[in-house]
Amino acid sequence: MDHAPLTARPLEQTLYEVKKTIVGQDELLQKMIVALLARGHLLVEGVPGLAKTLAIKALAEAIGGAFQRIQFTPDLVPADVIGTRIYNQKTGGFEVSLGPVFANLVLADEINRAPAKVQSALLEVMQERQVTIGRETFPAPEPFLVMATQNPIESEGTYPLPEAQVDRFMMKVRVGYPSAPEEFVVVERMLGFGDAPQRVMDPEQLARLQKAADAVYVDPGIIQYAVRIAGGTRNPALVGLPDLARLITFGASPRASINMVLAARALAFLRGREYAVPEDARDLALDVLRHRLVLSYEALADNIDPDDIVRAIIAAVPLPDIQANVPDRENVQWHPSTR
Q1: Alpha helices (H) along 191-294
Q2: Could you read off the pLDDT of 274-332 as tens digits, one per residue?
C-alpha cells in the first residue's frame, strides 16, 4: 500500500499548541523543533524568568514525550544525573536505579552551576545516546533532546562549561526580553486567561518525522558553504578577514559544519521543502557557531562578542548558486522508511 510522504504539518500543530503557553520566543521554539528533527541538543542562554523551562515542558506535553528537569547545583554528583547501583537487601544483590536523564526531553537547568565532573556525566548520553552504569549499558529513549540553560548575569557559584561539552550542543540560542505587547499577554495568561497545550502526536510519530527529515536533499554546494564558514573561524584570512585572527584562539571544530548541514536539512523540512537551500544553513550558522569559538585574551579584554565575529564571517562568505542543482519537487525520491 502506497503512502504519501510525511510533511511538517504535525510540527506546525505542535508549535501552535506550545504557543498557547509560550508568548513570543519564536526563535527559541523553532530551534527546539529543529534540534528535535536533527537529533541535536540545545544550549539556551538568558536571564531568569524568560520561560525557558516552560517552553520545553510545553513541547514535551505537545509531543507526548516524557519530561524531566534536573536542577544543577554545586553539590550535585554524577549519580544524581545518570543513576547508580543500589543494594537490595531482599535479594542480596545490586540493582540499577536509572537517573532523570532517561526521558525524551531533559532540561538541565542552570547547567553552569554544577562542577565539571557532573557536567561531563552528560557527555556520553548526549553524544552516544547511552549511559554506562557499572558494567551495564542503557540506551537513551528515542527521541532524545537535552536542553541546557545557563544564566549569563551571575558568576558566583558557577563553573564555565568545558569546551568538550559545549561542542556537543548543536546550537546555542540566546533568549531576550519580550516586547511590551508580548509581556502584557504573558501577565494576562498567568491570571488564567490561556489554554494548556494539547498532545498532538506521540514519540513514535516524531521518530518517523525525523526519518523524513533525513531524506531531505542537500546539495554539495551547501556542504561546501558550511565548510567555508567553519573554516573561516579557524583561519579568517581564508574568507578575506585576516584582522580577525588576533581575536580567535581556537575556531570551530568540524562538528560545527556537520551540525550546520544537519540543522539546515531539518529546517528545510520544517519549512515544507524536500530540499535544502543555502539560506537554511545561513539562518542557523550563528546559533551553530557562537559557542564554539575560543576568543583570545585581546578579544576578552575588549569585550568582543563572539556573535560579532561570526556575523562578519557569515557576511564574508557568499551564498552558493545552486539553483540549477535543486531537484524537482515532483521527482524527489523518498526513502521507504519515511513513508
Answers
A1: 203-214, 220-234, 254-270, 278-289
A2: 999 999 999 999 999 999 998 889 988 888 899 999 999 999 999 998 764 555 544 44
SS3 162: coil
Angle at 86 between CA 81 and CA 88, to 5 degrees: 150
List the grid coordinates of 218: 542537500
Q: 45 versus 333: which is more confidently predicted?
A: 45
Residue 227: CB atoms within 10 Å: 16
Query: Measured between alpha carbons, how far is 292 from 163 in angstroms, rounded to an integer?
Result: 8
Beta strands (DSSP E) in 72-129 are 83-88, 93-98, 105-109
Task: Tell me which residue of 235, 272, 274, 228 sits closest to 251, measured CA to CA.
Answer: 235
1: its cell numbers: 500500500
Instruction: Kindly state the percentage of the chain with pLDDT values over 70.
Output: 89
Higher pLDDT, 156 or 338: 156
Q: In whole angstroms, give the CA distance from residue 25 to residue 51.
A: 9
- Please give the grid coordinates belonging to residue 334: 523518498
| Integer Cα distance of 155 and 247 in angstroms | 23
Q: Where does the pLDDT of residue 336 fall: very low under 50, low under 70, confident under 90, or very high at 90 and above?
A: very low
Band the pLDDT of 30: cuts 50, 70, 90: confident
Dihedral angle computed from the Cα positions of residues 118, 122, 124 and 128, in that order, rounded to the nearest 10 degrees: 180
- C-alpha cell of 12? 506546525
